[in-house]
Design a protein that fits this description.
Elements (H helix, E strand, L loop, with lengths): L20 H9 L17 H14 L3 H10 L4 H27 L2 H30 L3
Length: 139
């Protein structure tokens, strides 16, 4: 068993911000877990399940232990839990993906933002250099 990892060469082993809802669903559904029926947070012995629980807990502002307790008390199986993880990812990443798409569709806006940032950084750096030169006696 292995968990999702951005260092894996397989693009489906990692969640990306711009993944579509369908791709997120596919990746989570196919994520490697194990054959143990119960869902427990055990990063050492069950890294795949623990990784999904960690993702879900991060997106729902819960601890992995709270997620585990919810799963146990509600009799949730892995199929249902994977659906829960998918829905949390879609809900959380949707607005981010939409904003990325909007920004990428407006290259002129991005160019303006970069130019504005460059000018601001240049002004700050110039002031700093002037101050340093004054402090060390170079005018």
């Amino acid at each position: 068993e292995k968990k999702m990892s951005k260092s894996d060469l397989d693009q489906k082993s990692c969640i990306y911000i711009n993944d579509s809802p369908d791709l997120l669903r596919e990746k989570v559904k196919k994520s490697v877990t194990d054959t143990v029926k119960e869902i427990r947070y055990d990063p050492e012995n069950r890294p795949g399940v623990a990784n999904l629980m960690l993702i879900f807990s991060s997106l729902t502002n819960q601890t992995p232990e709270e997620v585990e307790q919810h799963i146990i008390s509600n009799g949730i199986n892995k199929v249902v839990f994977k659906d829960m993880v998918t829905e949390a990812l879609v809900e959380h990443l949707g607005p981010i993906r939409s904003e990325m798409d909007r920004l990428l569709a407006e290259p002129g806006y991005l160019d303006e933002a970069l130019e504005h940032g460059r000018k601001s950084a240049h002004e700050i750096a110039s002031e700093t250099i002037r101050d340093v030169k004054k402090l060390i006696g170079f005018h």
